Structure formats: C-alpha cells, structure tokens
Amino acid sequence: MSSSFAPLGKVEDRRAPIHLLRELTMPIVLVAVIIYLVYGLVTMTVPGNAAFPGPRFFPLIIVIAMTILVILQTITAVRDWRSGDLVELGEDEDQRRQSGLVVEAGTSSRMDVPSLLWIIGSFLAFAVTLEILGWIIAAALLFWGVARGFGSRTPLKDLVIGLTVSSIAYIGFDMLLGLSLPSGILGWGF
Amino acid sequence: MDSLASLIDGFGHVLSIQNLLWVVIGCFLGTAVGVMPGLGSSMAVALLLPVTFALEPTAALIMFSGIYFGGLFGDSTMAILLNTPGQASSIASTFEGYKMAQNGRAPQALATAAIGAFIGGMIASVVVTFLAPWLAEFSSQFGPAEFFALALFAFVATSSVVTDSAIKGLLALVLGLAIAVIGIDGVSGAPRFTLGSPLLFDGISIVTVTVGMLALGEVIYMGVIARKTDEGEMLRPKGRPWLSGKEFREALPAWLRGTAIGLPFGVIPAGGSEIPTFLAYGAEKKLDSRRPDPQFGTGAIRGLAAPEAAGNSTTGMAMGALLALGLPISATAAVILAAFRMFGLQPGPLLFVNRPDLVWALMASFFVAMIVLLAINLPFAMLWAKLLLIPKPYLYAGITMFCGLGIYASSSSIADLIVLLVIGVLAFLMRTFDYPLAPLIIGMVLGPLAEYSLRDAMQSADGDASVLVSSPIAIGLYVVLLLVLGLTIRAKLAGRAGARA
C-alpha cells in the first residue's frame, strides 16, 4: 500500500518549496474566486432605478474583505514556511493538543492521489451516466469505484453489494417515498 | 401558562400515529449515522435533508428533530468504545469515557452518556418551551438594522471564536457569503455572477452546498488523507447495561452541572457544543481534584456525565434560538434553518404568529424524541455498536451513493450533481488545509439576510450607514457581541487548559 503514497519529502524537510506551494492551494483557489467576482461586478447590468446601496454593494464588500484576508493568509503561510513551522498534511494541530489522542498523523498519512482520482472520477462518471444507465446501475458503479478508492480490492463482491444497496435505495425512495430516480436502460422494458 | 397550553396542543399533533412514526424513524436514522465512525450529527442532518422533501413540512421537521438529537446520542458511542470522537463536541467524552470502557465498564459508560444526553436535552427543552416565545416576542421589535447586527454577530462569533486561525475562519465565511450572492438579486432583479446562464439564476442551492461540504467532502477527506491514521481496537461492551444506585447518585450532580453549563451556549453563536463540553469536563476535573480520592484519569463517571449533558443541553437550546430568532449557532443548526427555508418557512418571531401549530408540534417532538432516544439507546447501545463493524469502503461508498441520491432526487438535475462534486472537492481542500467548514455554511445561510437587511436599512436612510447603530437594541447587540467575544475566548482557553492539564 505504501507505494500508492505520493512521493513527498521527508517530514523533517519542511522548508522544501512543495510545502509552501501546498499551503497556498486555498489562497490560489480564493484568488480565482475573487477574479470571478470582479469580472461579475464589472459586467453586471444594474437596472437604472436601483437605489443606493444597489446589487453591487454587498458583493463589493465581500471582494474587498476576501482580498485583504487572502493577502494576510499568504503572508502568514510564507512566514511559517520560512521558519519551518508549517503543519504537515493531515496533521490536526487542534487534535494533537488534546492529549495523545491522534497518533502522529502527519508522519503516517500522505495525500493518496490514486484514491482521490478514484473517488472523484467515479462520482463524475456517475453524474454523467446517471440518466443513461439509470439509478440502479450507475449507483452500483459509483459504489464500486468509491469502495476501490477506499482500498477495497474485491471488485465482484463490491459490485454485488453496490447493486444490492442501490436496488434497496430505488425501492425505498423511488417506489415507496415517491422521489424520482431515473430508471434508464433498465426501464426500457417497462 | 400560555406556553403550557400551546405545548399540550403540540403534543396532540405529535402524538398522532403518523407523526410519532416520523419521530421514531428520525431517531433511528440519527442514532445510526451518529454511531458510525467519523460521522457526526451534522453529517446525519445534511445527508437526510433532501430525503425529507417528500414529506409535508410538519412531518419533515419533526423527523429532523429526531435526527438532530439522535446524532448526538450516537456520537458518544464511538467516543467511548473507539476513543475516536465523531465530531468536536464528543472529544471531551473520550477522556474518561474510553478509560471507563478500558476498565471493563463500557456498558455503564454508554448508559452514563445516554442518560446524560437525556437529562441535558430534557431540561433544555423545558427551558426552550418557556424562553422561546419570550425571545420571539422580543425579537418582533427587530428591524433591518437589528437583524443585520444579529447576522454580523453570528458571522464574527462562528468564524473567529471557535477556530484556531481567525483568518482562515473569516476566509471560509466570506467564501460562503460569495456563494450566497450568486443568482438573481432579490431587491433589484439584476442577475449576479451567473455568466448569463439560466442554470445559475436561482443561485446555488443550500442543500447542494451542505451535502457537498458536510458529507461528500468528508468522504473524500477520509479516503485520501485520514484513512491512513490507524484507529484503536474497538472495545466490546460486556456486562450489565445499567447503572447501580451508587453510580447513579455519583453521576447525578455532574449531569445537572453539565446541563447548567451547556444551556447559555445554546443562544450564543459560538459554534455549538464544543466549548461547553470542554468547560463541563474542566469543571468536574477541578471538583474531583478536591476530593480525598480523586478519580479522574482512571475512568471517572462524572468526567463523562458532565460533558454529555452539556453537549445536549446546548443543542436543545440551540433549537430555541433557531426557532425564535432564526439564528443558527452551529453548522448543524444552519442546516436545519436551510430545511425550514426549503419549505418556505422563515424561523423567527413571525413563525410563532403564523404557524403556531408547527412550532409547538416541533417543540413537543423534542420531548418525544428524547424519550424515544433514551429507550432505543440505553438498553440497545451494544447493538448500535455493531454498526462500527461495517467495513469502511462500504460505509463511505454507501454515503457517497446517498449524497448523489439526495441531490438528484431534490432537483432532477445533472448540473447539480456536478456542482455537488465541485463543492465536495472544495470542502476536501478546506479540511486538508484546516479551514473550518461551519463559517462557510453559516455565511451561506445567513448571507441573504445580512445583505437585504443591510441594504434595506441603508436605503430607508438614504444611504446613511449610521442608521445601523442608531437603535438601542442594535447597539446592545454590538456590545454583547464584544463581551461574548472576550468571554468565550477566555473560557475556551481555560477549558482547553483544564482538559490538557
């Protein structure tokens, strides 16, 4: 299993650039959000009769606050990185402080990239194929994919359990509770 | 008393066979999700939110109260048997609870937790019954400026008091506010941040955000990061599942003290029951050290009884604050507020006037839920613990399937499933880099209230911002905010220190 861990530096080497880059993931995402908001603010068509404060007022406050906070967070991250204080992935400082509850999570846990791809990929596939394959088949495949992402290596068993669970959900929620789930290709015969 | 008469009316509603059935189903589902490893009551509420749409509002909300309290009862099972808290509010229960289980007193520990949760919840429900109408009466004097102050109160408290890094908490908050402004502006009718796509005219649904944040994001996080952390062996409970008279007398004062500590936190938007559970634990520990035979550290029954009662009394009171003020104090309460909105209901003073039947039926259902929960948890805690044996891949695969089911069933839209995935990934990143999720959800839920009351207040004063601090109630709220900020920060530090020492 350990071969599936992403190859990252040793724990001691907390000043490698990768650590800073990772810590800046959220600020980068947030900068993208800011750009989207600014673009939206500029292109927004405001009805002429809108009194002050209009529809731009509140979003503008959000953009300003977010920009200031992102800058502050980036400065903090860079400073922590320089002094080697960055917290490791999966290391929860808060929990670590509560007695010896969490066993050195940082050293044993790493971002498991194949798992990430399996979980996200299966959900994406589920979303795209749901209306074609129908709930029972698409959900069973989703079940199998996520179970695989969690380290299960018994595809046949997983699929059978997945089919069972998705069928029960179909019966319970579609037939009994009246929620609408697509029947897809299984529904052609009916 | 008015409240009493209304409450009895409420019992009349709840005690119909059908509604009773929904409470019981809610209690079962809530306990089941709460017991499962890593899943707390917020996940229970988020996952089951879309499913309740098929019901009529009263039945759905009654079922919700069962889920809400059930999650809390279930949380402690994990904490006691596995030393792994389902969510932050059950961390304090692990300290003495797990030691009790290690010493072969697991059934008694489970019983202590269940009775503690029952006492805390019951007393809180009684207080809510009498306090909520009064609070609603008081808040009916609120205008836009006061509601803005209230929203700001919730924003600042949830994003900076409970979190380690105030910057990260505030970033999560503004991100939630940003998600909330997408869609058609309710005041001017201008489409905002929609890229011209009609898909976004209604904005991003609160349900999608909650399920993505609290459920799907958690699944990804568990699979990618946390799965590598080994868990302890589960302790199998054996022996009598009840408390002896001596044990009961020992725990009783701790239950009551815990309840008293928890109550006030139910109306303060400081993130729910994490702080009061630590405070209750710390207080018991201090009292214990004065006894001739200190028991803490060896599985003291009081060290488990107090935080359990505190957690549930906060949760019970939180429902009161939610009903009367429309103010959610934690992520879980915010989800319930979202549930009200889905049915076109707005908690707050008007709800007491417009839908008294629903309000009182809901309050009566709290009492019923507590009794049902005690009945299904006290004797059968060991059976519930069997749920811990579900293999993780299947557990999380099932949850993922359920996320998809809920979102698709509530919107019949593939686009919503894609949005759910994007939000799930965002939640995963936030979890990984220690950004708190609760402020985002509170920001998303209360964002529109904050924006419209701000604009309403300023428009009626011709754009003059000083109107926000012109009424005594608004000024009062800001003063209380500052006070609470100071006090909770101090209390939190003291609670943490007490728990660590």
From TrEMBL, chain A:
Q: Which UniProt keywords apply?
A: Membrane, Transmembrane, Transmembrane helix
Task: Tell me if Cytoplasm is a UniProt keyword of this record.
Answer: no
Q: Where is the DUF1468 domain?
A: 28-182
Record's Pfam families? Answer: TctB
Question: What residues form the membrane-spanning segments?
Answer: 24-45, 57-78, 116-147, 159-181
What name is this protein filed under?
A: Tripartite tricarboxylate transporter TctB family protein
The beginning of the lineage is: Bacteria, Bacillati, Actinomycetota, Actinomycetes, Micrococcales
Automatic annotation (TrEMBL), chain B:
InterPro entries in UniProt: DUF112_TM
Asked if the record carries the keyword Lipoprotein, the reply is: no
Q: Does the keyword Transmembrane apply?
A: yes
Q: Where are the transmembrane segments?
A: 20-39, 59-82, 109-135, 147-163, 170-191, 203-226, 321-340, 360-384, 396-429, 435-454, 466-489
Cite the DUF112 domain residue spans from the record: 20-442
Q: Which UniProt keywords apply?
A: Membrane, Transmembrane, Transmembrane helix
Looking at the record's lineage, which domain of life comes first? Bacteria
* Name of this protein: Tripartite tricarboxylate transporter permease
